[in-house]
Amino acid sequence: MTGLVPTERGVGETVAVDAIPEFAVVVFAAVTHLADPWFLFALLAVGYWFAGDGIAGSPRRAGATAIAVVTCAYAVVAVGKAWFAVPRPPGAMSPADVPTWLPGLLAGWFEAQVLSDGFGFPSGHATGGAAAYGALALLYDRFWTQRSRLLGAGVVAAAVAASRVVIEVHYLVDVVVGVAMGAGVVAGGLRLAGDPRFRCKRDTAPHDPTAALHPTPAFLAAAALSVVAAGLAVTAGHTGEVVEAGIGIATGVGGAVGWRFVDGDEPPVPVRVVIPALALTGGLWVGAYALSDSLLVTLVATTVAVVVVIALPAVADRGRDATRPGRH
């Protein structure tokens, strides 16, 4: 379907970006981290493990569903990038225009931020950011007001989208479509998970919509979309997109398998359990990317890591029961 999205799709944003002071560009380069995949999944995992009843009516269901929604968002991005296969703006290519006043360490960080390979449409950061912060605003529904949460989510999503244009790794259309896709994925993902607020027919307003959530369908939808992305990428010979799609398949399958161990009403996970789990999952994810030349290793490592993340509340709860006095 190449040609549906033109290679030259700018609308004059490059001229505007060139007028932005260097200091502001550096700030936006930092803002873009708010939707880095590693940051979003770490944020979502922390919420899933530690959130209490004061954050959501059913915090484990809410947290797992948020992870499933964002997994769907990245799967949709993988399909879009493999399908349209259009390049990023010239500013994303080497050499990077690094401010001379940045010290060496920050200069290396800045260069890594503003140089990006892969395809440019839609923006993964804009899509993932809109999906993640939108899902969090809707699912963690017992703090602030819904209006305040949605406003906060919108501000962060907009800032991330703007940052991708300012550091010249995306055109404006890439991020606008990405934000719209992220919002659509939130609605679709929550409906798949059984959120009564997104059903076609609602007889009464739910007292606790998170109690009805079941993230497995959303995880499986993400895996299915990633299979489509992998097929498109293989057909077109886009090796990098095949790896990304494979990670999406593994994340979706791992999430669905991990949730089978969870009842949904487990208490927060103790820190003493989280620390070794972080070491294990972190090592697996680092290995998955470091050994991305071996797709099988990447798939297995990612699947195991996601299973551990999702199943951890149940493992911790059963371990707690086993050590209570009177248990033999």
TrEMBL record:
SUPFAM superfamilies hit by this protein: Acid phosphatase/Vanadium-dependent haloperoxidase
- Give yes or no: UniProt keyword Oxidoreductase: no
Tell whether Nucleotidyltransferase is among the UniProt keywords.
Answer: no
- A Pfam entry, by short name: PAP2
Coiled coil, from the record: none
* Keyword list, A-Z: Membrane, Transmembrane, Transmembrane helix
Annotated TM spans = 23-50, 62-84, 119-138, 150-167, 173-194, 215-236, 242-262, 269-289, 295-316
Q: Which InterPro entries match?
A: PAP2/HPO, PAP2/HPO_sf
Domain called Phosphatidic acid phosphatase type 2/haloperoxidase: residue spans: 62-190
For this entry, the protein name equals: Phosphatase PAP2 family protein
This protein's species is Halorubrum laminariae
